[in-house]
Design a protein that fits this description.
The protein is α/β, with parallel strands linked by helices and about 475 residues long. The protein has a single domain (about 45-485), classed as Alkaline Phosphatase, subunit A (3-Layer(aba) Sandwich). It has helices at about 15-20, 25-30, 35-40, 75-80, 85-90, 95-100, 140, 160-170, 180-190, 250-270, 275-295, 300-310, 320-330, 350-375, 445-455; strands spanning about 65-70, 125, 130-135, 150-155, 200, 230, 335-340, 380-385, 390, 405-410, 410-420, 425, 430, 435-440, 440-445, 465, 470. Strands 1, 4, 5, 6, 7, 8, 11, 12 and 15 form a 9-stranded mixed sheet that branches. A two-stranded antiparallel sheet has the order 2-3. A two-stranded antiparallel ribbon has the order 9-10.
Length: about 475
């Protein structure tokens, strides 16, 4: 006698409870798990887009989509945007105890006998009508400052890279929580039938702090909400193409039969991951046509390449990914996450930061300009920043032409543009040493709550019940920073 013939004789406890209907077992299960999750019907079909659990935004959104330009490794705000002339004046002198206030240091500089203040070697000027201070390293960003909102009072709880980047991307320093894009797909669904709602682009051939797929993972949300990484090269999405000898028509028929089998299995045991599998198979089928079209940059006019810079012609560079992000935004992708590594400059900062600035400055500014001239900046939020800041003192030996900077969670800078953000302002302020925040502090959870608010989401109401309690992106705190809104 086969296992299939005896299937109903081997129910697990989960199977039994799922089949108990409205009895005591189902009631107990419903009290422990997300009822909507367990008893939800499949949310996708070959021709229909997915809807989010919210059904509609909590309130009218100002943003339809987000492009997050994450600078992995933590750019030095003191050499890019947070101008501190006192550091140049006191260059080489010791960080005062009254400024440090006993704050913890990393193991990389805690043992130093000297915490010598390091002034920036790069000149700063004010730009635009907003008179924003920008380093000479970022001339293209300087040209769009009147579109930007600089938040110079960001702070975080993590002092090392992995927990810090996990924190800003998932709301927790501990791995395993859903990423921002996953929360948005879960809550708001998709605006595109043929492309994932959450797409990830990573600059190729960059060293630095490692990036893990869990940074764009779904955590405890259903797997259909995870980000999909697009790569440069022959196969932008792994395992998307048909196996040799299999036509698209064959694959379509296979998916139809597979869907029917999964639906029968779902009716039998009620496992919600079956719905996710159906959804992912169908999306992969549609992506066979939509992905090549979206990634075809050769039909972009010459002036676009001139705008984004020469690197835009090379797939996988930050510039090419910024151009691709604009194309994905045009096609309704809700959350587009770019990662650019290499900003972790503990030593030889003046030499290394020049490379990073050259690779990112023109393309970042071009993205803002390109979105604006196409009318997309009105409902697209662009974010640029890292996971924390860098210290005012030098890690290692300070010399006339060289210095490094250690991790600094207590203050850092990011900028935002577009969709409901007040342009041409600087929000928050650090002290004369760039070490402590003296006005309008913005915690990472405040930033996340603000981002969700712009998309019409109340961060306290978008929750998911897991292991007996409700989770949200901002965990147990976070407030919307209304002063940033236009």
């Amino acid at each position: 006698m086969t296992f299939c013939n005896n299937y109903n004789s081997y129910f697990s406890r989960r199977d039994f409870l799922a089949k108990t209907g409205m009895g005591l077992g189902a009631a107990a299960l419903g009290s422990m798990l997300n009822v909507g999750k367990i008893f939800a019907k499949p949310t996708s079909s070959i021709s229909g887009r997915q809807k989010g659990i919210m059904g509609s935004p909590h309130f009218p959104p100002k943003a339809k989509r987000v492009i997050f330009l994450h600078q992995s490794g933590a750019p030095s705000q003191l050499d890019l945007f947070d101008y501190k002339p006192l550091l140049n004046k006191l260059n080489g002198e010791q960080l005062p105890d009254s400024v440090r206030q006993g704050q913890r240091l990393t193991g990389m500089s805690a043992g130093q006998s000297s915490l010598a203040l390091a002034g920036s070697q790069f000149a700063f000027k004010q730009h635009g009508q907003s008179r924003a201070w920008v380093s000479e390293l970022m001339p293209h960003t300087a040209s769009v400052v009147d579109e930007l909102c600089f938040v110079k009072s960001m702070y975080t709880e993590a002092i090392n890279h992995d927990p810090a980047i996990t924190f800003i991307q998932t709301g927790s320093q501990i791995a395993g929580r859903p990423s921002i894009g996953s929360w948005l797909h879960y809550g708001l669904g998709s605006d595109n039938d043929d492309l994932p709602s959450f797409i990830v682009l990573v600059t190729k051939n960059k060293g630095g702090q490692p990036l893990y797929s869990r940074l764009w993972g779904n955590g405890f949300l259903p797997s259909r909400h995870q980000g999909v990484q697009f790569r440069s090269g022959k196969d932008p999405v792994l395992y998307l193409n048909n196996p040799k000898g299999l036509t698209n028509d064959d694959r379509g028929k296979m998916l139809d039969y597979l869907k029917r089998l999964h639906e029968l299995e779902y009716e039998s045991i009620g496992d919600p991951e079956l719905n996710s599998r159906i959804s992912q198979y169908e999306m992969a089928y549609r992506m066979q046509t939509s992905v090549p079209e979206a990634l075809e940059l050769s039909n972009e006019p010459e002036w676009v390449y001139d705008l984004y810079g020469p690197d835009a012609r090379e797939p996988g560079t930050f510039a090419a990914n910024c151009l691709l992000a604009r194309r994905l935004a045009e096609r309704g992708v809700k959350f587009i996450q770019l990662y650019h590594q290499g900003w972790d400059q503990h030593l030889k900062l003046p030499e290394q930061i020049k490379v990073q600035a050259r690779e990112t400055d023109q393309a970042s500014a071009a993205l803002v300009k390109d979105l604006k001239q196409r009318g997309l900046l009105d409902d697209t939020l662009v974010v640029w920043g890292g996971e924390f800041g860098r210290t005012a003192y030098s890690q290692g030996k300070l010399t006339k032409n060289d210095y490094g900077r250690d991790h600094h969670p207590n203050s850092f800078t990011l900028w935002m543009a577009g969709a409901g953000i007040k342009p041409g302002i600087t929000f928050g302020q650090t002290d004369d040493f760039g070490y402590n925040i003296i006005s309008n502090p913005v915690h990472v959870h405040d930033f996340q709550a603000t981002l969700l608010h712009l998309l019409g989401v109340d961060h306290e109401r978008l929750t998911f019940k897991h292991q007996g309690r409700y989770y949200r992106l901002t965990d147990v705190h976070g407030k919307v920073v209304h002063e940033l809104f236009s």
